[in-house]
Amino acid sequence: MLHSRSLKGLAVPLISIAAGFIIGAILMLMFGYDPIQNYQNLFIGSLGDIYSLGETLRNMTPLILTALGFAVSSKAGFFNIGGPGQYLMGWFGAIVFALNFPNLPTVLLIIGSLVCGALLGGIWSLIAGFLRAYFGTSEVITTIMLNYIALYFINFAVKNWLASKGSDSSPNIVKKASLNTEFLQKLTNNSTFNWGFFIALITVFVIWIYFNKTRSGFEVRSVGLNEVASLYAGVNVKRTIVVAMLVSGLLAGLGGAIDGLGNFQNISVSNNLPSVGFNGMAVALLAAENPIGIIFAALLFSALQIGGLSISVYSNTPSEIVDIVIASIIFFVGIKYVFEAALAKNWRKKQRKTPDGGMDK
Amino acid sequence: MKKKVVAVLAATLMVGTFLVGCGNNSASSKGTKHSAALVTDGGGIDDKSFNQSAWEGLKSWGKSEGLKKGINGYNYAQSNDDSDFLPNINKLIKAKYATIFGIGYKLDNAISSAAKDNPKINFAIIDSVVKGRKNVASVTFKTEQSSFLAGVAAAETTKTGHVGFVGGIQSDVIKTFEAGFKQGVKAVNPKIKVDVKYAGSFTKADVGQSLATAMFNNNEDVIFHAAGGTGAGVFTAAKNAAKNGKKVWVVGVDQDQKADGAYKGGNVTLASAVKKVGTAVKDLSKQAAKGNFPGGKTVTYDLKDNGVGIINDNMSASAWKSVQQYEKKIENGQITVSPK
Q: A170: nearest CA in chain B?
């Protein structure tokens, strides 16, 4: 039984991924582009050499963290759409800290910046969690609105406090605050790969332990499964909601902080909410909110994005085709009930053939 | 169960890696001196504005040299996010393009760091100045001059004595448009009021539309936009107002936007303050191919050398005459337009 369930759990994402690629291929054929060559370029451009691999791993780092953040709140039964805002606050916090304390020793400087960023992201999400727990405000609405407040507040702050007059980005942080060291640059042929990747992996491990081995993690999950029953069982539901949203924001904020220190080295006025915040939700959905699964889902997304940049460089195909592939994958994950129903039918058929099948639990 | 997930995913990945191994790596072909590519700053090469103008310049250069789009020819890489700048530049470097353009001031950091790591490749940055790199040519435009003429056109056309300006993000570059426009309006008639609004984005047509609608309702009858893709919304608002019988105009930016102002029964594009990014891209590509790329230098384009200018789309004869007179005065130095 366990065996078949785990296969089923994997079947939906794998079918969705395959279906997404097939749809992309059909579209390319329809418009006269060569899908095999394009998918080849996509693979080479994302995983084909050490530089591209570095770029892909760097790109997946914040995705892992925003996805984890979304997964934590989602396990508690809440839809935290605030990833982009929390990510931005984290990015902002880390850069502000690094710019203000450039004389701290390297380790303190980096830890301080990361903590400052994560905390800002956490506070941002905590606001929504607090409103949800004590006033019953829909966290969907508050987090969406908080996204815009974060975007325009940070644009204002960068423009007026950080940037020199007329420019619209902050100065760069000192070199020692950067997570992108010369060693890693040499190793990956000048890619933007940075130590943040390892921080993200460790965080995945920590969150996995949190969910599976700690009381607080258990409470979060139980509140997500049934709020009333948890209350009856003696769980402090309000506190759990606040904790879940706080952890969720801390993670997204950490993602922003790592991107700030590792990739951008500064912060600038943004046109739009950062897409990594929303993509994190997609990654979490594809991974069915499983922390380990998130690593692989983030790798796939990141490879598609980074490889996608190659498509238009090496052929005449517009790179938007990759967005269609990504969107189709998520679409198919979204309608997973269709697959599940189809798979369940199959399963029942098999069961009838072997009457013992349903008994082994 | 979790072990299985990992195992299967790992297997899938491995298959992927094998495919990569078999892949015929087209990047290994050698670059020629005559290849060039550009990286966009967020909008696509079809943004009807800045990036499109650059891409058309590169295309026309490529065609005149008999090159094809792709490796060893000319190409573009589109950035969907600020984090795509450096990967895009590096992909073009790996594909051996000899000259790489960063379209827009937002790319200056990325161009500067890529130039440091790749001293043999020519880089150019548009709308910003990268200092201290011998292989980077910086290109700037005296857009305050063309915006001045846009101001003259607006002032000569307005019936309500109230005109508007819609900018993208408040930055040095866009401020020059605003400053030039205000000076142009004032030169014609100091009594005309200029309303300045910023959308906070170059890609939000919806914001542009609601800003412009509010401005038209506020009795402003000519709007000059310097807002890239956001400007598309300004045109939509103007066309809607025109369909409802209001007489309103838009002054386009960067390239001739006459087509954007066309609607059934008329056209709302008064003029276009063009900034010939395409010309600059074309010029620099030519120089790079000849081996005299102006690395380390700042190249400035102005009215005199046709790097910026104004195109008459639907101006009255008298307004156009006035614009031409001011154009001469700027060209021969009688009027100096301040960028601030």
A: B109
Nearest-angstrom CA–CA distance, A230 and A235: 5
In contact, A204 and A294? CB cutoff 8 Å: yes
pLDDT for res B152: 97
With cut-offs at 50, 70 and 90, classify the pLDDT of residue A201.
very high
The closest of A19, A159, A150 to A82, measured between CA atoms, is A150
Retrieve residue A79's tokens.
Answer: 């839809």
Interface residue B4 vs chain A (CB under 8 A): yes
Mutation site, B8, B49, B81, B108, interface A, largest A CB count within 10 A: B81
Chain B residues touching A190 at Cβ < 8 A = 90, 117
- The distance of B247 to chain A (nearest Cα, Å) reads 32
Q: Would the CB atoms of B4 and A7 count as touching at under 8 Å? A: yes
**Residue in chain A nearest B88 by alpha carbon:** A309
Confidence of residue A6 (pLDDT cuts 50, 70, 90): low
Mean pLDDT of chain B: 88
CATH entry, A34-315, from 1.10.3470, 2.30.29, 1.20.1530, 1.20.1740: 1.10.3470
Chain A residues lying within 8 Å of B73, measured CB to CB? none
pLDDT value of position A352 = 65
Tens digit of each residue's pLDDT (9 = 90 or more) over B205-214? 999 999 999 9
Residue of A nearest to B113 (CA): A190
Using an 8 Å CB-CB cutoff, list chain B residues near A319. Answer: 78
Which residues are CB-contacts of B293 (< 8 A; sequence separation ≥ 6)?
B99, B122, B137, B284, B287
Spell out the domains of chain B, with CATH numbers in brackets: 31-142+278-301 (3.40.50.2300), 143-274+308-331 (3.40.50.2300)
- The two beta strands, B269-275 and B308-312, are antiparallel
Of A43, A166, A310, the CB nearest to B172: A166
Closest of B228, B229, B232, B211 to residue B220, by C-alpha = B211
Put simply, whether B11 touches A (Cβ < 8 Å) is no
Domain ranges within chain A, ordered by starting residue: 34-315
pLDDT digits (tens, 9 = 90+) for A270-304: 878 999 999 999 999 999 899 999 999 999 999 99
Q: ipTM for the complex? A: 0.76
**Count of Cβ atoms closer than 10 Å to residue B9 Cβ:** 20
- Whether A241 and A132 have beta carbons less than 8 Å apart is answered as yes
**CB-CB contact of B313 with B124 (8 Å):** no
Residues of B in contact with A299 (CB under 8 A): 13
Pick A167's closest partner by Cβ from B16, B90, B172: B172
Q: Does B250 reach chain A within 8 Å, measured CB to CB?
A: no
Report residue B119: phi and psi, to 5°: -65, -15
Q: Which amino acid is at A119?
A: L
> Do B8 and A309 count as a contact with CB atoms less than 8 A apart?
no
- Between these two residues, B90 and A9, which has the higher pLDDT value? B90
Give the residue ranges of chain B where pLDDT is below 50: 1-31
Nearest CB to B23 within list A7, A44, A268? A44
Structural element, H or E, at residue A144: helix A139-157
Q: For residues A129 and A132, give the distance between their C-alpha atoms in angstroms, rounded to a whole number.
A: 5
Quick: pLDDT tens for A240-260: 999 999 999 999 999 999 999
* Residues of chain B found within 8 Å of residue A158, distances taken between Cβ atoms: none
